[in-house]
């Protein structure tokens, strides 16, 4: 049937299946661990609160006000402001209805499955793309989806997938709007959680490998031309982290890393 060849049909199917399976299977839910701290301390009530969440270590929201939180630095700081925008919207609409916050996690996980399916369908047949989507939707370690404060994981994945899809369109159509959106979504992704920081480098390597020219310098030039705006995001992100966290506690971080990885201590000494 023609409908089974439609990417839109399968994207909606995967979204509906994933959302229904996770949202309606949980009958009772409440906040746990650092959920309340993240929500309460990150509520945006006025412009200065918006500046605060975009310039503070997220760990500041996890402890009582009389707790002495170790000072962050450009390496150790948790820069994850994006989820507080969504938490604030839910707070003003539903206050402390835990199920409303859970809805965010499930919604973004479900939409990520649809985006992942679509991204796969650009390179693979629809059948295998659907299988890939199902595997990602229901892979074994999904018990933490009820942990409200893990929204940053779903947001980071959401913006990462959008960045990749936009870059794919830029690769084909070579229109500036696509590379601009790809870079913007990359910035949103690493501002959701730091673990997507290698995305820009990966896109650069992809461009380098798939350049038709066999000359090494020509491949470098081609890859840079394709990804310069994405690579520029690293500079923006570095400056934001430098402004937000500074360098003051760097020695402590290096000492901690050296204790865990002795070879680094030997190398530095």
Task: Give an overview in words.
By secondary structure, the protein is mostly helical. The model has no long low-confidence stretch (mean pLDDT 89). Helices cover 66% and strands 0% of the residues. It is globular. Helix 1 packs parallel to helix 6, helix 5 runs antiparallel to helix 6 and helix 11 crosses helix 12. The chain has 12 helices and no strands.
List the topology elements.
Elements: H1 7-23, H2 35-41, H3 47-53, H4 82-94, H5 98-121, H6 126-137, H7 151-173, H8 176-190, H9 199-209, H10 216-245, H11 250-260, H12 262-268
Helix pairs in contact: 1-5, 1-6, 5-6, 5-7, 7-8, 8-10, 9-10, 11-12
Order of helices and strands: HHHHHHHHHHHH
Q: What percent of residues are in strands?
A: under 5%
Structural class: mainly alpha
| Fraction of residues in helix | 55-70%
Largest sheet: none
* Unreliable parts: none
Shape: globular
Strands, total number: 0
